């Protein structure tokens, strides 16, 4: 792929959850733009595979919900790239379970990764960005953070928190730091495949105006745009990419 955003060339980019799904697609996109990219991931085998298969990609094993691990990860970023310009805070987990069956340990684990991880990584990034008075932080939130979805109480709550964290940081550190949340709807990632059967996927697709899931590459394209100077006046918001899912009632057999 030829570079689209010339200002991304040479930028120092950290992507959490970067060894699979949206994170890996985003890492590949920024590499194609000429950026320097370091990915964080807790899965050592997936991390090794991603690095081996993508020239120029570097990675660090990091548990984003562990403060000491995150601090160590950013110290490695300092060693590898000498700092950071763009953070794509993407790492997340999901558990599909009725509310009364969610025990506190599972609830805390989802919040620890999905929300605490965003807090910890953005804090380390902003410490470094503040010195240069420049930076972009993009969070992977979800349409689940905008409206209720049964069986995903912990995931929904964590993603709602991510959206408000993005808005708050955008206000606190304007005008030199831009912060936005990306809110994907259904994306065909390994995490989604693990939770949904083929029949469930077909049913979901039939209820989306575009009649399909997004690809990770489509979400990666949005991250690239929001990180570039083409979006220099966009901050403090959540950008939805959901194929029309949250636009309103979709009537599949509507004849026009």
Quick take:
With 256 residues, the protein is α/β, with parallel strands linked by helices.
Tag the structure with descriptive keywords.
single chain, 256 residues, 8 helices, globular
- Ranges where pLDDT stays below 50 over 5 or more residues in a row are none
What is the count of structural domains? Answer: 1
N-to-C terminal Cα separation, in Å? 38 Å
- Envelope shape: globular
CATH third-level topology? Rossmann fold
Q: Please estimate the helix content.
A: 40-55%
How many β strands by DSSP? 7
Order of helix and strand elements from N to C terminus = EHEHEHEHEHEHHHE
| CA-atom Rg in angstroms | 18 Å
Structural class: alpha/beta
Counted by DSSP, the helix tally is: 8
Molecular structure report:
- The protein has 256 residues and is α/β, with parallel strands linked by helices.
- The protein has a single domain (6-240), classed as Rossmann fold.
- 44% of the residues lie in helices and 14% in strands.
- The chain has 8 helices and 7 strands.
- The chain has a 7-stranded parallel β-sheet, sandwiched between helices.
- Helix 4 (104-132) links the parallel strand 4 and strand 5 (135-140).
- The longest helix has 29 residues, at 104-132.
- It is globular and about 55 Å long.
- The termini are far apart.
- The relative contact order is 0.14.
- The mean pLDDT is 96.
């Amino acid at each position: 792929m030829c570079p689209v955003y010339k200002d991304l060339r040479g930028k120092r980019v950290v992507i959490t959850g970067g060894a699979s799904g949206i994170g890996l697609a985003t890492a590949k996109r920024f590499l194609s733009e000429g950026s320097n990219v370091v990915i964080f991931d807790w899965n050592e085998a997936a991390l090794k595979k991603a690095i081996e298969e993508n020239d120029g990609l570097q990675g660090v094993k990091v548990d984003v919900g562990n403060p000491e691990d995150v601090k160590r990860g950013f110290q490695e970023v300092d060693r590898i790239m000498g700092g950071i310009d763009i953070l794509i805070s993407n790492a997340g987990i999901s558990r599909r379970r009725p509310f009364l069956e969610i025990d506190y340990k599972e609830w805390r684990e989802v919040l620890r990764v999905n929300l605490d991880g965003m807090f910890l990584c953005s804090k380390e990034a902003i410490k470094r960005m503040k010195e240069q008075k420049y930076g972009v932080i993009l969070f992977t939130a979800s349409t689940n953070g905008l409206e209720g979805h049964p069986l995903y109480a912990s995931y929904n709550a964590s993603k709602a928190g991510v959206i408000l964290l993005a808005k708050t940081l955008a206000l606190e550190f304007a005008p030199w730091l831009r912060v936005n949340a990306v809110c994907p709807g259904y994306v065909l990632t390994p995490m989604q495949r693990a939770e949904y059967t083929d029949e469930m996927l077909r049913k979901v697709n039939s209820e989306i105006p575009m009649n399909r899931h997004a690809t990770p590459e489509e979400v990666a394209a949005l991250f690239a745009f929001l990180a570039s100077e083409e979006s220099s006046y966009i901050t403090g918001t959540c950008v939805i990419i959901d194929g029309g899912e949250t636009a309103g009632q979709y009537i599949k057999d509507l004849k026009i």
